[in-house]
Design brief:
By secondary structure, this protein is of the alpha+beta class. Helix content is 35%, strand content 35%. It has four helices and six strands; from the N terminus they run E-E-E-H-H-E-E-H-H-E.
Length: 136
């Protein structure tokens, strides 16, 4: 399986602007700029997209890990915060809350740690990955 996205950038790094389009067209010429990346401008930015990818990938991986352990989650909600410092992503922090009927806290923590270590986006990122996992 291969997926793709295209970025178009016009102009200088600070004054220019660009757009992103994904293969599925969920993003279709979606605006991004210096302002949307480093300030509070309108549009998306690469770090926000990495956060979306990591939270989505982790949540799905956790569902598979729980399923392999004999549990079906009612819900998994994950927020990812990407930290960009001095031109590098220095941390990806996952905050996850899940409802998983019949699971012990110990088994839940074990499954969450396995998903954190083994989701494809975790494996891709060359940064520190931290997590707060809550069983509700």
């Amino acid at each position: 399986m291969k997926r793709n996205a295209t970025a178009v950038w016009n102009g200088s790094g600070k004054e220019g602007k660009g757009n992103l389009t994904t293969q599925s067209t969920v993003l279709s010429k979606t605006q991004y700029s210096y302002g949307s990346r480093f300030e509070e401008g309108v549009g998306t930015n690469p770090e926000e997209l990495v956060a979306a990818a990591h939270s989505g990938c982790f949540s799905m991986k956790l569902s598979f890990v729980l399923g392999a352990a004999g549990f079906t989650p009612d819900s998994i909600e994950t927020t990812c915060t990407i930290t960009l410092e001095n031109g590098a992503i220095t941390n990806s922090h996952l905050v996850m809350k899940a409802q998983v009927p019949g699971i012990s806290k110990e088994k839940f923590d074990e499954c969450a740690a396995e998903a954190k270590a083994n989701c494809p986006i975790s494996k891709l990122l060359n940064t520190t990955i931290t997590m707060d996992a809550t069983l509700i």
